[in-house]
Amino acid sequence: MKKQKAVTLIEVVLYCAVTAVMMGTLLPTALDMIQGGEKSMTMQEVASNGRNIMSLLKYKIRNASGVVSVSASTLVLSNYVGSNTTFTLTSGNVTIDEGAGAVNLNSSDTAVTALTFTDYTSSDGKTDNVGVLMTIEANFTASGRQEYSSSITLQTAAEVRGI
Question: Which keywords does this Swiss-Prot/TrEMBL entry list (predicted)?
């Protein structure tokens, strides 16, 4: 007769204990990795929106024919052809209006909390220079969670080339 091999109760308890210890170690690590990915995605979204807005602002300022007006949150540029270009902060969105209606420059996942234009035009009027200071932050629906919060402040200045 062959002897049958069986698993004893002690072996089952030991296997369960080892599995529980391994899961207790691996589960927090996996959750940290997931939250780290969400935080990274949030930071990338905010930084990308901020860089894109600042790049467009610098491009439009440099290629404008002049500065029409500068106020705290509105910049109006004259163009060589067509209507003026207007940048405005409206309800957390930076908008651009080139005559066909205002268009949001930032995504719905971000909100611009501060946008300040400063006129650095020379006193003799030979150069038109505009400074821009902007703060942009995440605007996700689960805003109470730490991994969904991110904010960045960007600053630049650009001069009208006057080609």
Answer: Membrane, Transmembrane, Transmembrane helix
User: Helix, strand or coil for residue 13?
Assistant: helix
Nearest to 113 by CA among 90, 140, 87: 90
State the Cα angle at 139 between 136 and 143, rounded to 5°. 125
Residue ranges of the chain whose pLDDT lies below 50? none
> How long a stretch of residues is the chain?
163
Global confidence as pTM: 0.77
Question: Is residue 138 within 8 Å of 110, Cβ to Cβ?
Answer: yes
**DSSP string spanning 52-98?**
HHHHHHHHHHHHSSEEEEE-SSEEEEE-SSSS-EEEEEETTEEEEES
